[in-house]
Amino acid sequence: MSKPTSNDAPDFARRAFVAKATTAAGAAVVAPGLVVTAFAKPADQPVSAKTRWGMLIDAAKCAADCTACVDSCGDQHGWRDESVGRPEQHAQWIRKVGLRDTATGHVTSVPVMCQHCETAPCADVCPTGASYRRPDGIVLVNMHTCIGCRYCMMACPYKARSFVHQTLTDQLPDTPRGKGCVESCNLCATLIDESSGTAPQTACSAACQKDGNGAIVFGDLNDPNSEISQRLKKEPSEQLRADLGLNTGVRYQHV
Known about the structure:
The protein is of the alpha+beta class. The chain has helices at 68-77, 121-125, 151-155, 189-193, 203-210, 227-234; strands at residues 3-4, 26-28, 38-40, 53-58, 95-100, 107-112, 131-133, 139-141, 162-163, 182-183, 216-220, 250-253. A three-stranded antiparallel beta sheet has the order 1-5-6, with no helix packed on it. A three-stranded mixed beta sheet has the order 11-4-12. Strands 2-3 form a two-stranded antiparallel sheet. A hairpin with a 5-residue loop joins β7 (131-133) and β8 (139-141). Residues 5-38 have low confidence and may be disordered.
């Protein structure tokens, strides 16, 4: 696996989500021989382990100068305010990272965010249960029970968590954020939970398909007929830090 370049040091930005662990799991409409799209369940049905939401990133399609995924995430969750605090404290739920092949020196640009691990180190070390994993694979942070100890930040091997240092105003109703709390990518759980009857998308995957290079595919990893499962079946993929055995929900191809 390629290694991050030196300019991708921890940014200790912030990521947060007040857990709305109430609804939405994926169900697939299956047609023989066809790749189909997973749809979110109706709002009155609980989250289920039958679905595992995940993301596939094709590094061959990810341009180094494209920031569609980063920009859309910031707009969706309201963390792109550059006017508050020191630069190193600015929130960044997703970031572009250069992966360097140690043998050839070739650098590939890919987005990195919370990897939504099946065995999440952040949840294992959280003393209050504020960091937890939903049955459908989404790892979240509950700001109401987060005490700001930052154990999860130390446990995360992907630098995907950070801390809110400032008092925040004008927050978005679907993504409240709190001073003294840890934040991380929530895989746009609100969008998934509210997408009953439609194919769910994260902000970054939708933007990548519309304004980027089509490098990000989002879907149900448990559905063998979903596009993401079919792509993973046809071509090999890699996990970041696969040696840790975390079974991440985010996979990469052509890195």
